[in-house]
Design a protein that fits this description.
There is one protein chain. The chain is α/β, with parallel strands linked by helices and 385 residues long. It folds into 2 domains: 200 residues, Rossmann fold (3-Layer(aba) Sandwich), CATH 3.40.50; 158 residues, Rossmann fold (3-Layer(aba) Sandwich). Helices cover 33% and strands 22% of the residues. The protein is built from 12 helices and 16 strands. Strands 12-11-10-13-14-15-16 form a 7-stranded mixed beta sheet, sandwiched between helices. Strands 1-4-7-8-9 form a 5-stranded parallel beta sheet, with helices on both faces. It has a two-stranded antiparallel ribbon with strand order 2-3. Strand 5 and strand 6 form a beta hairpin. The mean pLDDT is 90.
C-alpha cells in the first residue's frame, strides 16, 4: 500500500474543503489505469479515516446493430465531482456494426465520451475529463483548407459543460487558446520518466561529460530543455529538412534530419518526444547519433503507438542502434510491446491520482506534489548514493 503524508491526507480527504464527493468513470479501454488510480484514492481515503471501497462508477456505451450507440451510467452520480478517464488511442476495443466487428477509432472514443457527458449532465456537480492523449492533438494547426479538429473538440466539450480537461504532454499545448475560459492542465510526467530511467539503466552518469539531451525536432525543444536544465547537461537538436515541392499523405516528406549541437561522441544520449508513431524519425535520429559515435541511445515518448509494428525497433535494438525505449501507461500498449526487452514502462497512475485529489479540493497540485522538488530529491539521492 502506498501511503500519503499527514499533510497530504488532510488536503485530499477533508470534507470541508472538497468541491463535492468524488466519482471516477473509466471509459472502455482505460479499465487497467482506472483501477490503479482508484486504488491510490481508496488507500489514501482509508488512511484519512474514510471507509471507501471504490470511487469507480460503472458505465457503458452499448451499440445497436446499425452501429448507433448510447451512453449509460449505471449508478447515481448526483452531486458528485465527476472525473471521466478516456483513452482515445485504444484501438483494441471493438464493436459490432451490421454483423461486422470494427475497431474503435479516436472519433468513436470521442463520441462515446460525449454520450457519457450527456448522461451525466444536470446530475453531476461538476464534470472533469482526463484525456491523456488529446483527441485531434496532432491536427492542432491549419494549413490551407484543413480542419482544426483539436480546437473544435475542446470547444465542444466546453459547450457541453465540462469544467476541466487534464491531458499529458500535448502535441502543442497552445491549443488551450481555443478555450481560454476553461480549466486546462497539460501535465508533463518528467519526474516519472527520470525515476524509471534511473531505476532501469545501469551505470548511467548524468554529467556533462557523460550525458546529453537530444531534441528530435524544434517542436520537442521545450521538453528536452527542461530535462537538460534539471540535469545540468548540454542539449543538441535535430531539425527536419523537408521537400516542400511535394506532398505525401498530407505532409511535405522529410528529406533528412540535420544535427545542431556539440559532439555526442562517447556520451549516453536521451531523446524525448511526445509520440512515437511509425518510429521512423526516432530511428533515423538514433542511426545518425550512432554514426556520430554516441555511446548509448535512450528514447522516450509519452505515447508509444508503433503504428507500423515493432520489427524496425527489434532490428535497431539487435544491431545496437538503440539501447532502451521508455513509454507511459497513458495509452494502449500491446502485449507484444510490453514483452520487448528494450521497452520500459513509465507508470503515471499515482500522478493522475494526485491531480484528481487536488482538483477535487480546488488546490494547486504543487501543494500535494511538486515535480521539480521531487526531481531535485531524486538527483540528490543519486548523487549521495
Amino acid at each position: 500500500m502506498v501511503t500519503a503524508s499527514a499533510e497530504v491526507r488532510d488536503i485530499l480527504f477533508n470534507r470541508n474543503t472538497s468541491v463535492a464527493p468524488l466519482g471516477l468513470i473509466a471509459m472502455d479501454g482505460t479499465e487497467e489505469l482506472g483501477k490503479k488510480i482508484d486504488q491510490y484514492l481508496v488507500n489514501w481515503a482509508r488512511e484519512g479515516g474514510f471507509n471507501y471501497d471504490t470511487f469507480l462508477i460503472e458505465c457503458e456505451c452499448p451499440r445497436f446493430a446499425s452501429g448507433d450507440g448510447k451512453g449509460l451510467i449505471k449508478s447515481t452520480i448526483r452531486g458528485k465531482d465527476l472525473f471521466i478517464l478516456i483513452d482515445v488511442g485504444n484501438y483494441s476495443i471493438q464493436y459490432k456494426m451490421f454483423d461486422t466487428m470494427n475497431c474503435m477509432s479516436p472519433d468513436d472514443h470521442f463520441q462515446d465520451l460525449k454520450r457519457i457527458i450527456q448522461a451525466a449532465s444536470g446530475k453531476a456537480h461538476r464534470i472533469n475529463v482526463i484525456m491523456p492523449i488529446l483527441y485531434g492533438g496532432r491536427q492542432h494547426r491549419r494549413n490551407y483548407r484543413e480542419s482544426l479538429d483539436c480546437a473544435c473538440a475542446l470547444q465542444e466539450l466546453e459547450t457541453m459543460g465540462v469544467s476541466n480537461i487534464i491531458t499529458f504532454d500535448a502535441h502543442d499545448p497552445r491549443v488551450h487558446n481555443a478555450i481560454p475560459l476553461m480549466g486546462f492542465d497539460n501535465v508533463m510526467p518528467s519526474y516519472q520518466v527520470l525515476k524509471a530511467m534511473f531505476s532501469t539503466i545501469e551505470n548511467l552518469k548524468t554529467t556533462q561529460d557523460e550525458f546529453m539531451l537530444i531534441s528530435p525536432d524544434e517542436g520537442a525543444l521545450n521538453r528536452n530543455m527542461y530535462y537538460a536544465s534539471v540535469l545540468g547537461v548540454q542539449m543538441g537538436m535535430f531539425y527536419k529538412r523537408r521537400d516542400y515541392s511535394t506532398i505525401v499523405n498530407g505532409r511535405n516528406p522529410i528529406v533528412a534530419h540535420e544535427y545542431l549541437g556539440n559532439s555526442v561522441e562517447g556520451k549516453d544520449v536521451f531523446i524525448a518526444d511526445d509520440i512515437i508513431s511509425s518510429g521512423e524519425s526516432m530511428l533515423d535520429i538514433a542511426y545518425e547519433l550512432k554514426r556520430r559515435n554516441a555511446r548509448r541511445v535512450f528514447c522516450y515518448a509519452t505515447y508509444g503507438l508503433f503504428v507500423n509494428g515493432l520489427d524496425q525497433f527489434d532490428e535497431a535494438y539487435k544491431n545496437g542502434y538503440i539501447d532502451a525505449v521508455f513509454g507511459t501507461n497513458l495509452t494502449y500498449r500491446t502485449d507484444a510491446l510490453l514483452s520487448r526487452e528494450w521497452f520500459h514502462e513509465v507508470d503515471c497512475s499515482k500522478y493522475i491520482s494526485y491531480f484528481i485529489a487536488a482538483l477535487n479540493h480546488d488546490v494547486s497540485v504543487s501543494t500535494i506534489l511538486d515535480p521539480h522538488d521531487k526531481i531535485n530529491a531524486l538527483l540528490a539521492k543519486r548523487n549521495n548514493g
